[in-house]
Design a protein that fits this description.
Layout: H1 3-23, H2 33-58, H3 61-80, E1 99-100, E2 105-106, H4 107-131, H5 147-169, H6 178-197, H7 211-224, H8 231-251, H9 259-271, H10 289-320
Antiparallel strand pairs: 1-2
Helix pairs in contact: 1-2, 1-4, 2-3, 2-4, 2-5, 3-4, 3-6, 4-8, 4-9, 7-8, 7-9, 9-10
C-alpha cells in the first residue's frame, strides 16, 4: 500500500467511527454530520485507529482489537464523559437497572456502553476500512512513526475536550469519585494487557457458514441482544454476546474463515442502522415527529448505501485477485 492510499482507510475510520457511534442509530440528525466529525472524529476515530495499530503491531488480530475496544469503552464511559457513574447525565438515568451500590454503577449500562463502543465505535469502522484495502494491507500497520504519535496526541486532546465539554453541558458539573475512576482505569488496563498479550489459537478444521449467514447472525445479534432496559434484558445481552464471541471465535480458527466473513459480520451490524433509527428516540427530545422520520430515513439510507458500496468494492477487489495457473 502506497503512502497516499494508506491514508484512505485512515480517513474512512475517522468518518465511520463517529457515524456508527452516534448517528447510524438515529441519535443525531444527519444534517449535524459536519459538527459531529469536527468534535468526535478526533475522539472515536483516533481511538479506533490506535486500537487497530496496537493490535496489528502486536500480531493479535481481532481478539486483540476487541479487548482493546472494550478498554476504550470503559475509559470513555467511566473516565472521559463519566456517563457510567453520573446520576444525572443530561435527561437520562444511567444508574438503573441493576444498580451496584458502592461503585454506583448500572451493570446494564456498563454492558450497553462498552458493547456499543466495541461494535459501533471501533470494530465496524475498522472492518469496513480494511474491506476497502487489498488483502496484504489488511494486517499491516497504517500509521508510521510520525502518524502514530500524532494520532495518539489528537486522541488525548480530544478526550480532554470531551471531558470538559460534557462535564459542563451534560454532566451538570459531576465528577466521579476516586474509587470509581480507579476501578475504570484498572479494568481498562487489564483489558489492554489481555489485548496486547493475546495470541492466536491453533488452527482447526471446523466448518464455517456462508458470508450471507454470518451477516444475518451479525444483524440479528446486534439488533436484538438488548431487548429492553431491565435485569432480564441484561442477562439476554450477556448470553447473546458470549454466544456470538464463542461461535465466531471458533469459526475464526478455521482456514475456511476469510476476511470476507469478517466484513459480512460488520455489514450485519451496519444493516441494523436501517432499522434502529425508527425504534429509538433521538437525543433531541424536542424534534417533531415528521422531522424525526426524515432524519431516521436519511440515516437508514446512508447505512444501506454504505453496505452497497462496500459490497461493490469487495466485488472489484475479488476480480483483481491473481488466479493461480494450471
Amino acid at each position: 500500500m502506497t503512502r497516499r492510499t494508506r491514508w484512505l482507510p485512515v480517513l474512512g475510520v475517522l468518518v465511520a467511527a463517529p457515524w456508527f457511534a452516534e448517528m447510524a442509530w438515529g441519535g443525531i440528525a444527519v444534517t449535524e454530520l459536519p459538527l459531529v466529525l469536527l468534535f468526535l472524529a478526533p475522539l472515536y476515530g483516533s481511538a479506533a485507529l490506535l486500537v487497530r495499530e496496537v493490535a496489528r503491531r502486536a500480531g493479535g488480530g481481532w481478539p486483540s482489537m476487541l479487548m482493546l475496544a472494550a478498554a476504550f469503552g470503559v475509559v470513555q464511559a467511566g473516565v472521559v464523559d463519566q456517563s457510567l457513574f453520573n446520576p444525572a447525565y443530561g435527561r437520562f438515568d444511567f444508574q438503573h437497572p441493576v444498580h451496584v451500590a458502592g461503585l454506583d454503577v448500572s451493570l446494564y449500562f456498563l454492558f450497553a456502553f462498552v458493547s456499543g463502543h466495541v461494535v459501533a465505535s471501533i470494530a465496524t469502522p475498522i472492518a469496513l476500512a480494511e474491506a476497502w484495502t487489498r488483502a496484504p494491507s489488511r494486517r499491516r500497520p497504517w500509521l508510521g512513526r510520525r502518524g502514530l504519535p500524532v494520532v495518539a496526541t489528537v486522541y488525548v486532546l480530544a478526550s480532554v475536550v470531551n471531558h470538559l465539554g460534557v462535564k459542563d453541558e451534560e454532566g451538570h458539573g459531576f465528577q466521579a469519585a476516586p474509587v470509581q475512576t480507579v476501578a475504570a482505569v484498572v479494568a481498562a488496563a487489564l483489558l489492554v494487557a489481555g489485548g496486547v498479550l493475546w495470541r492466536r489459537r491453533d488452527v482447526t478444521d471446523v466448518r464455517v457458514p456462508s458470508t450471507v449467514a454470518v451477516a444475518a447472525i451479525g444483524f440479528a445479534a446486534y439488533l436484538l441482544y438488548l431487548p429492553g432496559e431491565s435485569g432480564a434484558a441484561l442477562a439476554v445481552g450477556v448470553v447473546v454476546a458470549a454466544g456470538v464471541v464463542a461461535v465466531v471465535g471458533r469459526w475464526s480458527t478455521s482456514p475456511r474463515w476469510t476476511d470476507d466473513h469478517v466484513t459480512a459480520l460488520a455489514i450485519g451490524s451496519v444493516l441494523v442502522g436501517v432499522v434502529m433509527p425508527f425504534l429509538v428516540e433521538p437525543y433531541d427530545d424536542g424534534v417533531t415527529a415528521g422531522r424525526e422520520i426524515v432524519q431516521d430515513t436519511a440515516a437508514a439510507v446512508v447505512c444501506l448505501a454504505g453496505v452497497a458500496v462496500t459490497w461493490w468494492r469487495l466485488r472489484v477487489l475479488a476480480r483483481r485477485r491473481p488466479t493461480s495457473g494450471p
